[in-house]
Design brief:
Elements lengths: L3 H14 L8 E6 L5 H8 L1 H6 L2 E6 L7 H11 L4 E3 L5 E2 L4 H9 L5 E4 L11 E4 H6 L13 H11 L3 E4 L7 E2 L4 H4 L4 H4 L1 E10 L2 E8 L3 E9 H4 L18 E3 L4 E7 L3 E6 L2 E6 L4 E4 L2 E5 L3 H25 L12 E5 L6 E4 L1
Parallel strand pairs: 1-2, 5-7
Antiparallel strand pairs: 2-18, 3-6, 4-8, 5-6, 9-10, 9-17, 10-11, 11-12, 11-13, 13-14, 14-15, 16-17, 18-19
């Protein structure tokens, strides 16, 4: 969604570096982009569509970018035996597809990912279509930024697939971009009205996020790596699996808010807090919170909060043995290669 400026640099290069029309198909899903993507593809990529190595699909339905849903749609539209998620800002590298075809031909029960050394490549996964469908794709309960890929990897390992890594440094190039751009089209970022933070201790920070629809969430982020420097009796047992991550101390709380000319009123359960709209420092639940005005910090905290919420939800599902996507996944209506008269409905 709205990544034309990246695709202009990566798409044709990726096709040329992996030009195997009889064996490789690039599925480009236009997730209701508003940046001229469709027109650019028409004008510049038709030759690849004509030979069948590129297929362009467009959906007009999504209002926000949903990572799990968009990837599920693209994977369901793909016709190949081996599926690979490819972000718009990633360069595959010359020969990546041929290497994967050769590796999967060995018939081992495997899936391939990056070696986790690069943040921008993390999430690229190569998996057999049958294995992907058997676990019902990416978890669409996880709707914000992050952790949907880790959750997918965990569930693939749960069906006894071995995780292997592609190591060629040529497969690890990407376009650098800001953290704000990563989440620009996601619900949390587009609907955020105000965001506050409080310092609890060196390992805990409280986040208060007010949405434009007059709801809010309140949560506590835990910097789990640093907890391991504390005496053992202070370390909760349930942090063992979170050694290198930021997570939540408990489920996030929800409430409603309203505003007058001068005040903001927060209501959570039977508790009410009132403070001035003009104050950059407020008191909420006996803690001093600070209004975040720095845009880079704001984007970073949106990412941290979103990843932590998704991690919390995914691990709760796992603990409670909840089914993933029980009502289906990747559903929606798409149009193929600019033919807006014939729609394809994924049910």
């Amino acid at each position: 969604m709205n990544r034309l400026h990246h695709l202009q640099q990566t798409l044709e290069k990726n096709i040329q570096d992996n030009y195997l029309p009889e064996e490789v198909e690039f599925v480009l899903l236009d997730y209701n982009s508003k940046d001229g993507l469709e027109e650019w593809v028409k004008q510049n990529m038709q030759q690849y569509i004509d030979v069948g190595i590129l297929v362009y699909y467009k959906t007009y339905e999504p209002e926000y970018y949903l990572r799990s849903h968009s990837r599920n749609m693209a994977f369901r539209l793909a016709k190949a035996e081996i599926l690979c998620n490819l972000d718009a800002d990633n360069f595959l590298g010359k020969g990546f597809a041929a290497f994967m075809i050769e590796e999967f031909a060995k018939q081992e029960p495997v899936f391939y990912t990056s070696n986790d050394s690069s943040h921008d490549i993390f999430g690229r996964v190569c998996v057999r279509q049958g294995d992907f469908l058997s676990i019902k794709g990416y978890n669409e309960t996880l709707q914000g930024y992050g952790y949907e890929d880790v959750d997918l990897f965990d569930r693939l390992k749960k069906i006894e697939l071995k995780r292997k890594y592609f190591l060629n440094p040529e497969f690890y190039h990407s376009i650098l971009h800001s953290k704000a751009e990563r989440v620009a089209d996601e619900y949390m970022m587009k609907n955020k009205e105000r965001m506050y933070i409080t310092y609890i201790n060196p390992y805990l920070s409280g986040i208060l996020l007010l949405y434009k629809d007059y709801t809010f969430i309140h949560s506590t982020l835990v910097d789990t790596p640093h907890l391991y420097f504390l005496p053992h009796f202070l370390l909760p047992d349930n942090y063992v699996e979170e050694r290198n991550e930021v997570t939540l101390s408990e489920d996030w709380q929800k409430g409603n808010w309203q505003e007058t000319n001068r005040e903001i009123v927060l209501t959570e359960n039977d508790n009410t807090s009132v403070f001035s709209k003009e104050d950059s420092e407020i008191y909420y639940q006996h803690c001093k919170y600070y209004l975040i005005s720095d845009k880079e910090l704001e984007a970073e905290l949106v990412i941290l909060l979103s990843v932590a919420m998704n991690r919390y939800s995914a691990q709760k599902q796992l603990r409670e043995n909840q089914a993933v996507n029980p009502e289906g996944f990747g559903k929606g209506c798409v149009y193929k290669n600019f033919d807006n008269e014939s729609k394809i409905i994924l049910t």
